[in-house]
Amino acid sequence: MPPIRSVGSDAGRSIVGRLILAVALVVGALVLFSSCTARVDAGHVGIRVKLAGSSRGVDDIPLVTGWVFYNPLTEQLVMFPTSVQNIVWTKDPHEGNPHDESITFSSAEGANINADIGLSFHIEPTMAPHLYLRFRKNDLMELANGYVRNAVREAFNVVASRMPVQDIYGAGKGQVVADVNKRLQDQLGKDGFIVDQLTINGALRLPESVATAINRALEQKQQAIQAQNRVAQVEAEARQAVAQAEGQANASRERARGDADARLITARAEARANLLLRRSMSPQVMQYRALEKWNGKLPVMNGNGSLPLLTFDATKVIKEDDAEVQKLLKEIDAEDATQADAKKDEGKKDDPLKKDEPSKKDEPSKKDDPLKKP
Questions:
Q1: In this predicted model, what pLDDT tens digit does every residue of 296-331 receive, in sequence order?
Q2: In 3-state terms, what secondary structure has residue 91?
Q3: Residue 360 φ/ψ, nearest 5 degrees
Q4: Which residue, 151, 182, 206, sits at the end of a domain?
Q5: The domain containing residue 326 runs over which residues?
Q6: What percent of the chain has pLDDT over 70?
Q7: In 3D, which of 144, 150, 128 has the Cα closest to residue 85?
């Protein structure tokens, strides 16, 4: 007799089997999905490399940020950082690597110059496939310590070989960095490297003999500059003394000219007064002036019986010709007017905004000169 099977137990086993199969399918799907997808993080760029098939090689189109689906059996994803990378090649064991990574280059005279170099760079995202295709590496620091460092050292040697060591050690240091930076941009830019900053960290290290010679030359140059400054100071002081002497001489001349003008004006005034006095010398005036000076006393002895000073012959008084006196007065007036015009012109030179005023000459008239005869 065959055994009796329970319908409920068969149904239970069937459900459990289905659940296990479902879980297995889900797990398998998750494993397959995780192995076929990758995420390109921010600051990175992805490159799809096909390992099999007729289109084997590097895909020319880089992958940007986001999830990427690929076949892990026939394809490979390579990630490149696109952020700025910093590296220092220095002699200091406490910075960078413990061994000496400084760069040495030569000047035009063949003098060896050692320097600590700092470099900041990043890669152009669109050039990432070309960069990987050429070097087959995605470690940028490894590329920087190899290919990029060799390019930097070669650029320094080419640029520095055209300049004397004294210029490189002095004011030409910045020009060296600028020329090397330009050369690196042209050379490394073809492979996708973009140089953000190139620096010489600290002072340049030179052979002791070369450094001593340069310092001595710089000291002599400073002494020459100081000597030139002293010469310029002496010349400036000499020019100042000459200017001061000229000013004092001009002031003395002006004072002398003013004194001479004052004496001339006084002399002209006296001459004018004398001429006017001579014009007034008539017999009546002479007798009037004599009476003004007489004290009223008669002399003790009088031989002819006439009064002194009242009975002298006034017709014998010498009198200047009136026309000649008039001519002399006009000449004096003309000279006074000329002097006044000259002073007015000097005032206009000092004050260019001063308006011209018509000159007024004082001409003798009958009203001004009551002694002039009609």
A1: 776 665 555 555 555 555 455 544 456 666 677 677
A2: coil
A3: -115, 120
A4: 206
A5: 280-294+308-374
A6: 64
A7: 144
